[in-house]
Amino acid sequence: RRDVLVLTPWLAPIVWEGTFNRDILNAQYLQKNVVTGVVTFAVEKYCFFIEGFMRSANKYFLAGHQVNFYLFTDHPEKTSHLQMAPENQLFVIPVQNGSRWQDISRSRMDIISSHIHRQFQHEVDYLYSVDIDVQLLAHVGVEIIDALVATISSWQLSPQHQNKACETGPVSPAAILEGQGHFHYTASFYGGSVSEVYKLTRACSAGRLQDTESAREARWHHESHLNQYLLHHRPTRLLSPEYYWDTEL
């Protein structure tokens, strides 16, 4: 494709529809005999999205390959009727009843890093975090697999980009001032090898704790810390905004 940017300044590929051959990638992926994990959170009002997300992800996310879905929720009973593909497994991880979705959102990096250390690193080779209010409409395949993967925010392609992309000032150590980064990444879909995701989530969790101790808060919360980390630890693969399109646009 010549209509879009397909390579970053540091020579990492940017994946758009039409820039890869999924058959070739599937054959290579199968030879590795790996397992991929997906982490998502459904607390309070977001439990409404469990069925839509799980049905679409079960159908379209790495279809035909082994995927472990890790669902953190305060309503585990809402998953009892879900049917998974033979190659997929659903692990429901209860969170404390009464947990506010805002609290879970702020601490999700800490939760992910803790569970990688205790559990996920022994069960999966790659791990992706995806928001529960996502509806997959087409196949998301092994073209997303790499060591450290980030998704370009769809707001970067909009006229309102300047209002969304950068922090307005150094309120938090996570602040990225205008002109510092090449891309703005969404925290709604990111991942990579389980070891790289562990490093990322630990760093973001530490940054959020530093904010709390100094009574500061990043403008876009964990997304700001994600972007700060990826500014200094550049992704090895970028996914185009096609992979997480904000319906507000």
TrEMBL record:
For the ligand (Mn(2+)), the binding residues are 131, 133
* Record keywords, A-Z: Glycosyltransferase, Manganese, Metal-binding, Transferase
What does the UniProt cofactor note say? Binds 1 Mn(2+) ion per subunit.
Protein family per UniProt: Belongs to the glycosyltransferase 6 family.
Location(s) in or outside the cell: Membrane
Record bears the keyword RNA-binding: no
Question: Gene encoding this chain?
Answer: Abo
Where is it chiefly localized? membrane
Which residues of this UniProt protein bind an alpha-L-fucosyl-(1->2)-beta-D-galactosyl derivative?
Answer: 223, 246
Native source species: Nicator chloris
Please indicate if the UniProt record lists S-adenosyl-L-methionine as a keyword: no
Q: Name one GO biological process term.
A: carbohydrate metabolic process
Obligatory cofactor(s): Mn(2+)
Please report the record's description of how this protein sits within the membrane: Single-pass type II membrane protein
The name under which this protein is listed is BGAT1 transferase
GO MF annotations, alphabetized: hexosyltransferase activity; metal ion binding
| Residues that bind UDP-N-acetyl-alpha-D-galactosamine | 41-43, 46, 131-133
Active-site residues annotated for this sequence = 223 (nucleophile)
Please, which domain of life does this record's source organism belong to?
Eukaryota
Return the Pfam families for the record. Answer: Glyco_transf_6
Q: Which GO terms describe its cellular component?
A: Golgi apparatus; membrane; vesicle
Task: Output the InterPro entries linked to this UniProt entry.
Answer: Glyco_trans_6 (IPR005076), Nucleotide-diphossugar_trans (IPR029044)
